[in-house]
Specification:
Blueprint lengths: L1 E9 L3 H8 L7 H10 L3 H20 L7 E19 L5 E17 L6
């Protein structure tokens, strides 16, 4: 069983979120939340909130315990780009690209093997 949480239009570039999201797949959901609290980056705070949402979806929607979930995947995609300009020398202007991200996080139930 898979539980999914999405975050759309996050005001942070996809590269910054991907740097932190590479740490999550394969970790227990509770361990991943603790890890995100220890990393001092904006992207870690965003991913921690998304993990909390996914865990809440699992507990309330599917009656699953948080300690029985593992992070299956974190997919970070490009969102829309705001195009702005900043004044430069001699009356010219330089473009600024303000990037956004769409993040999809999937939790999977741990399968216990009978011994």
């Amino acid at each position: 069983m898979e539980i999914e949480a999405k975050l759309k239009y996050a005001k942070i570039s996809p590269k910054k979120i991907r740097d932190v999201s590479r740490l999550l797949p394969g970790k227990l959901a509770t361990d991943a939340v603790a890890l995100m609290k220890c990393i001092p980056r904006k992207s870690a705070k965003i991913l921690g909130a998304l993990l909390g949402s996914a865990i809440a979806n699992a507990e309330n929607g599917s009656n699953l315990a948080a300690n029985g979930l593992v992070v299956a995947s974190v997919i970070v995609e490009d969102g829309p780009v705001l195009k702005r300009f900043i004044p430069a020398a001699k009356g010219s202007a330089h473009p600024i690209r303000k990037r956004m991200s769409h993040v999809r996080l999937v939790l999977k139930k741990i399968e216990r093997k009978a011994e």
